[in-house]
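Data card: per-record layout.
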Amino acid sequence: MRRQQGITLIEVLVAAVVITVGLLGVFQLHLTAKRGSFESYNYTQALSLASDVIERIRVNPSRLANYAAINYGSGSYTLPSTPCHESGGAINRCTPDQMLLWDQYLWDQQLLGTDERIGERNLGSPANMTGCIYVSGNDVEVVVSWRGMNATRDGAGEDSSNCGSADNHRRMVRVETVIVEGV
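The structure for this 183-residue chain is written out next.
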């Protein structure tokens, strides 16, 4: 009668295959979680930017109709000659028109991601982030679109919005509100 004195090569190979399959599953789960976290971060950032511009409009309701545009995030807004922010401990007092120009420039730059840079590369926002503001009377709709990582379906869904580039990577955040002057 012979006694076995160790494990065979076949047993070692089977164990290695089982461990490899298990590790591949764990790595795939990790990758899926990272992508989901990234998409969630982009959504949160877009919602924050939409809320920010709405609050800026609430501060300057007399120029409500002038905020309407579909090209925010294109870099087409230039730095106003009068910045409406705290500078050297003093706050610049701006007229409503100056505040409008400052808000448009600042939101455009935020959508471009210029607040975080490496060299000439903007890193502060998701890819192809575009902002649109639609105004109808006192009703304001702010749409922020960007390009997601994974193909799904167009973020506009049934909406005919032309904010951003239409494709199956587009994601959108839409915030609607009413702004009443003097309230």
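Known properties of this structure: The chain has a mean pLDDT of 86. The longest strand covers residues 139-147.

See the next section for split statistics.
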